[in-house]
Design brief:
Elements (H helix, E strand, L loop, with lengths): L1 H9 L21 H15 L9 E5 L3 H11 L4 E6 L3 H14 L6 H19 L3 E4 L2 H9 L7 E3 L6 H8 L8 E5 L8 H14 L4 E5 L5 H5 L10 E4 L5 H9 L3 E6 L14 E5 L3
Parallel strand pairs: 1-2, 2-3, 3-4, 5-6, 5-8, 6-7, 8-9
Helix pairs in contact: 2-3, 3-5, 7-10
Length: 281
């Protein structure tokens, strides 16, 4: 959200942020995927503090429903902009396809919960006045689904200036380790990553593997690796700033990037210290 907020503040607009700690209902756990979208609208109301009504409310795609319902019921004049880092329904479908391809079953409970979560996200998008997507595939999907192109924008993620400065200072790419950056979930390619990394760890006894910024508990990652290599698997659940991210890059020799099959043809452009493993986007 800072992507938008920082720019608007520079232009003289009043900006307020709502983060997880401001939510009163549980933000983690099985029911949170349903409570969060509903509560989001009430949290937007709480932040007004008696000042004039908001002109625009920007919200993650998965939380748009609550803002839309509150706007309708309270007759607010908000314009709602949804920011999506990956359309929920496409992500869910990719997870199902990926698991099927690898012979991994999906429990009925997970299928039902995922379908309901997608429906909540889909319904929330109908309330939005504009949708910002992080890739062209999502833009095209929404356009085919009936959303006018005029209400769809593709966002191109930029690089942090601090990271660019650190890169200019030089980086040895040392440490003998393999670095994976990303959420530790199916559609990030973990069913391809684990066997590939396991093979390398067995062949190279001085090598270690790190899953950083994975948003998963250590045991969730370790239990997917064989016992004989778990001692060289490290888990860093959260990287809170650019300095820690840069340190992670510098302390590893190889960056492991999981890519979709349709992107595999482009990996030849990657630096030699980046290894790609074919998986879902």
């Amino acid at each position: 959200m800072y992507l938008t907020g920082d720019y608007l503040e520079k232009e003289g607009f009043d900006v307020s942020y709502v983060f997880a700690e401001k939510f009163r209902w549980p933000f983690t756990g099985g029911w949170s995927r349903f409570s969060q979208p509903i509560e989001s609208g009430f949290r937007a109301l709480d932040t007004q503090g008696g000042v004039a009504d908001w002109d625009i409310v920007e919200v993650h795609e998965s939380l748009a429903l609550g803002c839309g319902l509150v706007r309708m019921l309270r007759r607010k004049r908000w314009k709602i902009v949804a920011f999506s880092y990956g359309i929920e329904r496409l992500g869910f479908d990719a997870m199902l396809d990926y698991r099927k391809a690898h012979g991994v079953s999906v429990k009925l409970k997970s299928r039902v919960a995922g379908a309901v979560q997608c429906a909540v996200a889909d319904f929330g998008l109908y309330f939005c006045d504009h949708v910002v997507c992080s890739n062209q595939k999502d833009v095209d999907y929404l356009a085919v689904s009936g959303y006018p192109r005029t209400m769809l924008t593709r966002h191109f993620s930029g690089g942090d200036e601090k990271m660019l400065e650190m890169g200019r200072e030089g980086c040895s790419h040392g440490g003998g380790g393999i670095l994976f950056l990303g959420t530790w979930i199916d559609r990030k390619g973990i069913w391809d990553v684990v066997p590939a990394v396991t093979r390398i760890l067995r062949e190279k006894p001085n090598t270690f593997f790190t899953a950083a910024g994975c948003q998963a508990e250590e045991h969730e990652v370790l239990e997917q690796f064989p016992n004989d290599v778990r001692g060289r698997v490290r888990v860093n659940r959260h990287l809170s700033n650019s300095e820690l991210l840069a340190a992670a890059y510098r302390s590893h020799s190889i960056f492991l990037l999981s890519v979709s099959a349709e992107s595999a043809a482009h990996t030849a452009r990657l630096p030699s210290w980046i290894v790609s493993v074919s998986g879902p986007a």
